[in-house]
């Protein structure tokens, strides 16, 4: 099961700032449980942010990105009422897409 | 040449390149590697694979981070580029088992400035590599880690 991406998009002075946090364990595949068992790798490999239908950020992650990946960035344009969406896919093929209205 | 290499890496040809690198003992393959460049170990090898072997140190690229971070599992890092037409930012951690942490493609209109959080196994240099109009610009910064994160 996946959890929603928390997204906030705020328009100001011609730019829209996006803050997002994607709930994900980001397991490297190197961590061991107390009994010595290896926790399998499980991490987001691709994350895309769209403004309406246009891609504004394309990120590729390795397992060195922290648990619950967090990003803050800005793009030109965007007005309140527009849509910002975030899609991700992980190394197990799980996917998720969430969106928010620009404020 | 570098541009051609980048295209090769982005396409299926990367497998051939990596097979060669693997035979040369440069690359180890973790399970489920999403993209071959993430499987390459070492800053120089990753930069080479990205076509950035000749990247110049640039004061126009800045890494903002604390000097000392308690918890290596969650190290806040901000990269700011003042290089015109910055189109890609790569974030590398010298001492991590996985050297390349993240690769960001910035379409036109997206500001070359972003904050994220990375894992660091131990005190290490963090490298921000910015591509702009075919040229590469790099900044390095050491971040001291008190308690290593499982990177």
Automatic annotation (TrEMBL), chain A:
* SUPFAM superfamilies in UniProt: E set domains
Signal sequence span per UniProt? none
- Sulphur oxidation protein SoxZ domain location is 8-100
Q: Identify the domain of life.
A: Bacteria
Q: Which residues form a coiled coil?
A: none
UniProt xrefs under InterPro entries? Ig-like_fold, Ig_E-set, SoxZ, SoxZ_dom
Q: Provide the protein name.
A: Thiosulfate oxidation carrier complex protein SoxZ
From TrEMBL, chain B:
Q: Which domain of life is it from?
A: Bacteria
The family database entries (InterPro entries) matched by this protein are listed as: SoxY (IPR032711), SoxY_sf (IPR038162), Sulphur_oxidation_SoxY (IPR016568), TAT_signal (IPR006311)
Q: Where is the Ig-like SoxY domain?
A: 49-150
Q: Name one Pfam family in it.
A: SoxY
What is the official name of this protein in its record?
Thiosulfate oxidation carrier protein SoxY
State the species of origin. Answer: Denitromonas iodatirespirans
High-level lineage: Bacteria, Pseudomonadati, Pseudomonadota, Betaproteobacteria, Rhodocyclales
